[in-house]
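Session log. Operator J.P. requested a structure for one protein chain; no other inputs attached. Running the standard single-chain path with token output.
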Amino acid sequence: MSARIERVAWGGWPNCYRLSNGDVELIATSDVGPRILHYAYAGGPNLLLELRDQFGASGEREFRPRGGHRLWTAPEVFPRTYEADNAAVEAQVQASILTLTAPVESCGVRKQMRIRLAHVGPAVQVVHRIENALAWPISVSAWALTMMAPGGVGITAFPPRVTHPEVLPPTHPLVMWAFSDLSDPRWTFTRKYMILRQDPAIPEPTKLGHFNEKTWGAYLLGSHVFIKRYDAIPGAPYPDFGACYETFANGTTLELETLGPLTSLEPGAALEHTESWSLHRDVSLGSFTDKAIDEAILPLV
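Structure written below.
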């Protein structure tokens, strides 16, 4: 079965699009957004967060997280980052590609997602596009945030580890926020990996960021794993003290976030930021050690 796209009603929104190939399915809506709201094996559980009390609505004056996957602009500033993406978007279907284009926001940018599902298997490509619709240049970064269903564990890798004095200069930043707490029991650090557990019993937010040229984030929920990958550019200017990857958790969700480099956009110019997604099942991770992650998760990346 090849990939196909069909218009469906879902989550209370009448104008959604299901991309399916018999192996996995992905659902995005054109009633608000652009937003991807569902990604799962056919007939299986959604790995993305569903904030059902916010489903089916549109036209709100303030930003609504809703769950799923969204596109923001970085650096994080108010009100530009928190522009309410609550209006209908234009949907175009071309073969196995769904393109969702939002109207120009009040801050002067237009956001777009191009979503391509492989004809077989779980692979998805998501191209995030930000266009400058203003009459003057702006400096922005694409910020792709995926909100995961609760109860899982986020894993990301540090750049390759070597010994002292083999490499003497620092290799990458580890970025903290004012609310970051390294004693928080949700964090685990190994030599090669940074691990964050989503715990519904701990409502306080926590967040860290870092840089890795071969950026990837994995989310383990039961025996299912969601992975997103992105090739960062060494030496390019990234927001948040040089972070191309950030992870955030509170009592509701855990977010896997990638960021593109800060880009100066002339009027009418646009930038693109591409993530590659995949799903995996029947994954067993007995412990959160380098050896266990190397064996269970790394081959999937």
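Operator note: The domain at 4-300 is CATH 2.70.98.10 (Beta-galactosidase; Chain A, domain 5).
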